[in-house]
Amino acid sequence: MPNRAATSKKQKPESSEAYHQSYEESDGWLTRTGAVARVIYWGIHAACLLVFVVGAPLPAVLLCVATYFVRLLGITGGYHRYFSHKSYKTGRIFQFVIAWIGCSATQKGPLWWAGNHRRHHRFSDQEGDPHSPKHGWYHSHQGWIFDSRWEGTPEDVIKDFARYPELVWLNRNHWVPPLVLGILCGLIAGLPGVVWGFAISTTLLWHATYSVNSLAHIWGKRRYETGDTSRNNLWIALATCGEGWHNNHHYYQAAARNGFFWWEIDVTWYVLKALSWVGLVWDLREPSEAVKQGRPGKPRLARAA
Fold first, then answer.
1. Residue 188 domain-assigned?
2. CA 259 – CA 231 distance, rounded (Å)
3. Count of CB atoms within 10 A of residue 289's CB?
4. Where would I find the beta strands (DSSP E) of the chain?
5. In Å, how far from its chain's centre is CA 258?
6. Integer Cα distance of 18 and 41 in angstroms
7. Considering the entire predicted model, what is its pTM?
8. Cβ atoms < 10 Å from Cβ of 36
9. Per-residue pLDDT tens for 168-181?
């Protein structure tokens, strides 16, 4: 592959001690590395087996579909494209709404998620990347969330959003939105609603999100030379509303759309575009033709992989 352009050069990794963050102040008492959190995490997985008890009543299954896709958009359009990359703008009220929806996905708070994602791009596939597949598929998929080095919010890289007290509160109390959602699922459809609308939906959502960190770095095609192992994968894109165009994203992180071309299905982009028509979001960034074609002055196109 051709050498990377200067615009995609990574920063020199720091010592491993620099990555460890204390969570007492920024992340509250519940972290994925604690015993209580592990019991909850694996307990939600185990609760999916209750499907053999409650069956598959249609209202509960439809609730599962709804909570999956709404929360997925909270992660892809909110946590990722807004809080991590600031690829569009919105008002403070809607900013909190998308943060709440993303938080209900049970993937911790917006500052923790976006801060660690920024760290991923800063050290992609190098020492300091929280979930590089170079440390093994399981580590990149979900093992990293149990690593105490990444349990705290890296406040130094998320200061732009850490100035909002409501986001700091949500980041510290990230367990509140999932709890509220679980209760609502029970009120809507009883125990089947909790099993399908929360447990199964959450488990599917976890592993769909994780697949971008793991599978989208080992399975797929590379359009651009990015200096890391990011790949484009249609199947992951379909499961994650467009996040599977991962090589595109690593090549040009500022874009609000990951599917650079019309044939690259990117549901998150379609939703953001619709929201811009009603004035809830604006200034959506798109890749220019020069960016998409990998012209001189931009990172070059990669050879087929």
1. yes
2. 12
3. 8
4. 89-90, 281-282
5. 13
6. 27
7. 0.86
8. 10
9. 999 999 999 999 99
